[in-house]
Amino acid sequence: MKTITKYLSIIVLCFLFTVTQAQEKQLDSVRTNYKELEIKKLIKSKKTVELKEREFLKQDITAINTRLNTGEITLSRANNLKKEAAKKRALNIENHIAIIDNEIALWNRNDKFYQLDIRSEGDRKMIRIGSGSKENSGDKLIFIGKESKDAKKKYDKRTYNDLVFAFGFNNALIEGQSLDNSPYKIGGSGFIELGYDWKRRIFKDSNFWRLKYGFSFQWNKFDLKDNKFLVNTDGIISLEEFPAELDKAKFRTTNLVFPFHIEFGPSNKIDKKKFFRYSNYKKLRVGLGAYAGFNIGSMQKLKYKEGGNKIKDKKHRDFEVSDLVYGLSGYLGVGSSALYIKYDLSPVFKNQSKKQNNISVGLRIDLD
User: Fold this and answer.
1) CA distance 201 to 228
2) d(CA 9, CA 11)
3) What range does the domain containing 76 cover?
4) Count of domains observed in the chain
5) pTM for the full model?
6) Shared domain check, 168 and 40
């Protein structure tokens, strides 16, 4: 039990460090470099505006002189037109520079949101990189496309989609046996989960309760110890001593599951004129639920030496693994990171005298 406590402490420390640091460090290099570059471009554009308007003024004066020389207008009229042209160009410079100064001020105030316009014939495209700040939580992290498409926001968006990634420690709870006496190494056994889910607000006027549902691939790995390996004898799965010294003995199951969680926690409502969004940025969130699905693969991999030669032996689908997989899961976290636990109610191996149930503890990251 001391070993379990040690590894759980490591997970919790990693989780706390991730929560406090990940949000602030996200896109830091992009934020600094791109912001400075954009401000320099805006400052440079001030001079460009002045040069262009002065060039336009020269063209205006040339056109007026041409009309004067052809007798189309009088000298007095020509002088008045030149004054009007000079006044117009001066106001253009003043207005353009004011707009640029406002853009520079906007960049200085909002260092976590960047927008770049790309103008082409008959179209205007945009590249925007947002760091997931609370003001922009309803937008995509990275958007590349037409400006008009990005500008049309749905007034009330109740459903969002996330990419889910989880990893951590894995083992099995064996009937009548403590985890300390598990035949699987605690440090070497692990799991990875990769999935896609949807998050939907349950109530119209509150974001406290949410539904999360989707699909995930789970890879549960067991690192066998004491030079043991799994043997199938007429449908009975047992651990036996390997006749040679094993360098590695690993068993892995691969599952496709469909998780369903009820998530709850506080959020901020961001109300704009044309739309509103709820933000869970840096907010506590708790998820409780279950999952069910199918086993889609199993494999035992053994590495050892025989006669001085390195042997790698892989055996697939001969271990009486349960076809149906179901269990309970939950998570507790802040922002996109959470401490995650899942427990299979279905046994790892079917029709055995002693049940083995998979249990996993680790870190879960929801990338929206």
Assistant:
1) 49
2) 5
3) 28-111
4) 2
5) 0.61
6) no
